[in-house]
Write a structure and sequence with these properties.
heterodimer; A: mainly alpha; MetI-like fold; flat; B: mainly alpha; 11 helices; about 0% strand
Amino acid sequence: MFDLHGYGPSILEGTLLTLEVSLLSLAIAMMLGILGALAKLSPSKPLQLFAQTYTTIIRGIPDLVLMLLVFFGGQVFINQVALAVGYEDYVDINPFMAGVSTIGFIFGAYMTETFRGAILAVPRGQIEAAYAYGMTRVQMFIRILLPQMVRHAIPGFGNNWLVMVKTTALVSIIGLDDMVRKAALAAGATRMPFTFYVVVAINYLIITSISVTALKWLEDRYSLGVIKA
Amino acid sequence: MDFSIILENIGIYFEGLRTTLILVSTSLLLGLMIAIPLAVLRTSKNYLIQAPIRAFVYFFRGTPLLVQMFIIYYGFGQFEAIKASFVWFFFKEAWFCALFAFTLNTAAYTTEIIRGSIEATPHGEVEAARAAGMSRLLMLRRIVLPSAFRRALPQYSNEIIFMLHGSSLASVITIVDITGAARIINSRFYSPYEAFLTAAAFYMTLTFITVFLLKKLEGRWFAHLRPQTTSNAPKKV
């Protein structure tokens, strides 16, 4: 359908990198999300305030600005630290690390909101019953809360994932060889920007479509015990 | 950190602020104007009307805004036919391309939001309108759309914030918006903290003002849903 002038494998490589960035960021985001949600729901005021500040700040700043801040700012910061400890050479910041950590950090805030809602959706009685059985907090979380909150978390989680996959396109701006940048390089060499960007767009559509199907399956699976109206 | 660089060059940021505001408000307005008819048509049962709108929404919601912008800004130049025609006058301008991409993007998202709230119209409202003898168009104008807008407002507020943040991508194709201003300052003085933290502060202020105004609007539009309180009503525990 498209004549890619031999740049097909290069785009495919970029697609794999896009997936890699997405999945790693997802892992970070989920960890931060769980921690953030637990902090927001904890009785400790400082923890609540901390989590609240985190989510508010993240939602007020565009992804791109944060990413540029981490990438360029991190560069300066690391070199200042390196100089302070007596390291004379120039340290380069890894765009992969900068991209993954920024995206993970941003979506951790969105996951916090999703997980908080999901935890609140689990009936209080379940948690009280768990404690009445003498479970510790960790046991209660793993055995009672987690399995039941998954069902409520999936729709929000799926949304965040889809937005996140698309956000990974930004890493091309800080020089990471994801599929958008691979396409840009190929477009420059062949003078066929339209073809290559459309191919990339189709790749994103494939990823999102597969995700939607998988999420639907997951949601059905975790709702087996629920009678639908 | 040395914020005196920023203070001396604050003018660039305010110019960027102007560009951001113009880009965002224009694309939101045009996008909404496209989205309303599309959302109404999308609820049609005729598949031939529905399918192209579905395809439009599917494409623009399923791909990154950055890629859409690149397709329009870099991609359209690949075709001699476009370059030869009068539309090239517009598409050779980065500014127009960004506006074009933003408008279609927000139109797709908004179509989906409004469609959802049109389909959630309580059946009784439609029935009552029909019983009162309204034509389809009159019913749409007086009953369905006003109630759908009200239901769509919380989600549309989110879309506005997303668009505000998404507009920072314009800086990638040479436009000097707030982010673009920060990138200029960063490359001129090599001061990433000051440059990008200032941009972040600008965006945060804009976000909070927008959220505050939208909350006020929500309060007005949902005034009839507020629980009625009397002074001696028992407090809910």
